Amino acid sequence: MKDQALLYTLGPNEQSRQLLARFGGGLYLESFPDTQEREDPALWTTRLMGEEPDSALGGTVALDRADEIVGAVLWEWYPKACCGLLTYIAVVETSRGSGLGASLFTRVAADIKALAAQGGRRLDALFGEVHDPRVHRSFESDTMAWKRLDWMQARGGRVLELPFLQPPVDGGEPLPMLLLAFPTQSDNPVARVATSTLVSFIEGIHRGSDPSCIASMIGSIRSAHCRTRKLRYQRQRMALPSLAVSLFWTVDRREDKLPRRCPIVASFEQDILDYPSRECPPMRTRVLGSRPATLVFPGSISYQAEGDQNEVLAIGADGVGTPRRLTISLHRAATTFRDGRVVHSTIFAPKEDVSDWDVIQLTMLGDSTDGRPFGDQVILECDGATSSLSSWAEKELGDGANILGQSVQIIVGTDPAWMDFMKHVFELHEDKAGAVSAFAVATEDEGDLMVMAQTISGILTSQWDFEETDGYELADSIGQTFSADPDCLCWAMLSTTLQISSADRAFSLPVIQHELGLSPYLLIPQAVALHNEQLLREAASLLEPAPSERELERVHTDLAVLLDIDWLDNPFHYTTERDYLAQAMSQRRCEQRRTLLRKQRALLGDRLKARGERRALYASVIMQTFLGLIAVVGLRELVFQLVPKEIAWPVFGLLALISALAIGVMAYRSSSASGAPGDPS
């Protein structure tokens, strides 16, 4: 339809006046049913003909081959403020999705810029008005209102953080709206608008309005700093199958010995360990208990991405922007090593309650949003107590507890949509070069496949804006599976381990579901990877700041313990678990970091060696000096025996001076051969 439509630019002529009249009597009435926002089309002609000095009206009308109006856009120009306003844009239902609306929108900034240039002016800002989708309106669905805002934001529009009132129409009341700012000088979204520009714009569009209304808006502008944001909501596009998310916390506590074997986990742990590790287990996992709980996610999430300020609104029981509650069972376990523990807090949620946004939030608990840890913003209601998840962790685990990573397990059963998704990913894994384009095309249809791919990509890459990922980005992130077969897909990326399978024998056991909450074959390898990464963190902390001379030997020894003695090489027997651990450590670049730390330890060893050589040199000089003094004392007796008394003292003094010079020369030559005292090399 876009290619068939003729775009006609309105101007001060009779044909434009007739087109405006046709648009105002047809598509305009259909597209804007709310009489509060609909002005009299007869007023357009005056402004179109340039008869008002404070503003001008322009626009574009799209005509099909039958000369019927299939779309139109109207805009206003305010020369005093050097601003434009996108007033109305409408497309007939049969042409929506064809790109016609985007073509009409593209003409707006270009036409206003051209009009401004005719008067030697520059377009400083382009604004648009849209209904706030958080406020329900009886004549349209909330979904349609969000689609309209999403469409505007896809064109670069960003919501200004201030209360805005649309000027009253036909003597009515001012209408609360969202005011958006669009790019004018580049394609990048506008981060903020100059206060003076906004004030002039408000004064321009509200000329003749209630002065108190204008003063109130201008006061809000001056206090809001005119920042913009992208506004979205957590639309539940799909329900996830049975889901378990395990959060891994580190607890810095050295153990004298490993705890006793836990009967629930011991057989699984013994099964996956290789033969030498079975004889002397390097760790033991035990269950600490489970309980019902409720997670309360915040009503809104603010974050920055690519320089863009974003706000995502939850859909709670009380509507958009209210906290969302999720009923869960909370399982606790711990894998203990000889040098510390990794505690698992596994959140298990039934299928009917979990959306894609829920699992994204569960895997982002260790991140920060708007300068605050997200775990501080999520509330946990458990055992009659209410606290943030971070506060709960500090109370349960101690002040040193922090989230190291997470494992996610999704059991999809025989769901045909998930089976199709797994088939596509398996093909991508088997032949990535040849399947990337096919996968990208397959996920561009906005159907179940794309929703699933975006969710999985968001989990793996820790992204709040996962819904905006395109097909090629999805192929790049999802194609990095390290273990795949048609019934089980496994990923390890950044701090997350993820498994999607049609079934899991261990996880299906009631004792595992009720006590552990996650398959031990997924939980234990992740614990080992995080244990090793924590050793690297501790080793790096020993080198910051650089150790003093007094600390050299202690730091050198502690690094050896952390990087070689406590370090746990791959202790697993089965290929799958070995791959889990290898990929998880590879994503964290553990071996590269360990190699670098070992090199730094070697430099400390060189400093220790040089210090030892200096100390040996000092001891040698002292010994030579002492022996020289003994020789001088013996020389005195010899001089007094052989030399007359009247010249004995001068002769002895001369010989003592020569001996002292000889000792000094020897010390100097020794220091020159071994490095001057104090030289760190």
What does the model show?
- The chain is an alpha+beta fold and 681 residues long.
- It folds into 4 domains: 6-233, Gcn5-related N-acetyltransferase (GNAT) (Aminopeptidase); 242-531, no CATH class; 532-604; 609-674.
- Strands 1, 2, 3, 4, 5, 6, 7, 8, 9, 12 and 13 form an 11-stranded mixed sheet that branches. A 10-stranded mixed sheet has the order 21-20-11-16-17-10-22-25-24-23, with helices on both faces. The chain has a two-stranded antiparallel sheet with strand order 14-15.
- A hairpin with a 2-residue loop joins strand 20 and strand 21.
- Helix 15 packs across helix 16 (471-478), helix 19 packs antiparallel against helix 20 (552-565) and helix 19 (520-542) packs parallel to helix 22 (590-642).
The number of helices is 23
- Total number of distinct structural domains: 4
Instruction: Give me the secondary-structure category.
Output: alpha+beta
Q: In oligomeric terms, what are we looking at?
A: single chain
The low-pLDDT segments are 676-681
Radius of gyration: 37 Å
Strand percentage lies at 15-25%
Shape: extended
Query: How many strands, which pairing sense, and closed or not: the largest β-sheet?
Result: 11 strands, mixed
Beginning-to-end CA distance, first to last residue: 78 Å
Helix percent band: 40-55%
Summed over residues and divided by their number, the pLDDT gives a mean of 84
> What is the total tally of β strands?
25
Task: Present the secondary structure layout.
Elements: E1 6-9, H1 14-25, H2 27-31, H3 42-48, E2 56-63, E3 69-78, E4 83-91, H4 100-118, E5 125-130, H5 142-154, E6 158-160, E7 164-166, E8 175-182, H6 195-205, H7 211-224, E9 228-233, E10 242-251, H8 266-272, H9 275-279, E11 283-297, E12 300-305, E13 308-313, E14 315-316, E15 319-320, E16 324-337, E17 340-349, H10 356-363, E18 368-369, E19 372-373, H11 374-377, E20 379-382, E21 385-388, H12 389-397, E22 402-411, H13 416-430, H14 432-442, H15 448-461, H16 471-478, E23 483-485, E24 488-493, E25 496-501, H17 505-508, H18 510-516, H19 520-542, H20 552-565, H21 575-587, H22 590-642, H23 645-674
Helix pairs in contact: 1-3, 6-7, 10-15, 13-14, 13-15, 14-16, 15-16, 19-20, 19-21, 19-22, 20-22, 22-23
